[in-house]
Amino acid sequence: MPKLKSKSRAAKCFRVTSSGKVSRKKCGLNHFLDKKTEKRKLSLSHETSILKSDIKRVRRMLCL
User: Fold this and answer.
1) Which residues partner with 49 through β-bridges?
2) Could you say which of 26, 39, 44, 54 has the lowest number of CB atoms within 10 Å?
């Protein structure tokens, strides 16, 4: 049986931590940055965890 390929877009969007949690970057930090406050840009730059209901789906896309 051949190796399973992960969804390449999901591999770029999500990251699995060492404890097994799935994290992602927040959106909204690519353009129109001059009208956003520093506080807002700082909060957008941090990674966040995904919803509990989506973990199974994302792990399947990443072939984990």
Assistant:
1) 23
2) 39
Angle at 57 between CA 51 and CA 60, to 5 degrees: 135
CA angle 62, 8, 4 (to 5 degrees): 50
Residue 28 lies in a domain: yes
Predicted TM-score of the model (pTM): 0.74
Q: For residue 57, name the pLDDT band (cuts at 50, 70, 90).
A: very high
Q: Is residue 3 domain-resident? A: no
Number of neighbours of residue 60 by Cβ within 10 angstroms: 13
Q: Which residues contact 25 (CB under 8 A, 6 or more apart)?
A: 13, 47, 48
Nearest to 44 by CA among 59, 25, 58, 62: 25
